[in-house]
Amino acid sequence: MLTAPEIRDQLLDWVQSNAQFDAARVTEDSPLTGPDSVVDSLALVSLTLIIEELLGRPIDPDDFADMSRFSSVRSIVGAYFTDARR
Predict the structure, then answer these.
(1) What is the dihedral of CA 64, 74, 28, 18, to 10 degrees?
(2) Which of 11, 23, 36, 79 could form an S-S bond across to 69 if both were Cys, CB 3.0 to 4.6 Å?
């Protein structure tokens, strides 16, 4: 099982690979949703599949009601990969 920091690194690498601009400027706090998102909306669909793969289960559809869970790599790790959430 991967640790939260390892998951953060994998997610951040993916976001940097899919960034719409200079990947060097992407951090774990860069916005993934909204008008200033560093990735396009289609990339977010792929990102949810990666999250599910790392979780080993589907994301609860109710989670999509609170898009703040997906607002940055930091928020994804906090919402899904901290010890309390596993």
Answers:
(1) -30
(2) 79
Rounded to 5 degrees, what are φ and ψ at 48?
-65, -35
Write out pLDDT tens, residues 40-78: 989 989 999 999 999 999 999 999 999 999 999 999 999
Rounded distance between C-alpha atoms, residue 18 and residue 5, angstroms: 20
- Amino acid present at 76: I
Task: From residue 1, give the alpha-carbon distance in Å to each of 14, 17, 53, 58.
Answer: 19, 24, 12, 17
Q: Are 64 and 26 in contact (CB under 8 A)?
A: no
Q: Is the pTM of this model over 0.70?
A: yes
Q: Cβ–Cβ contacts within 10 Å for residue 82, how many?
A: 11
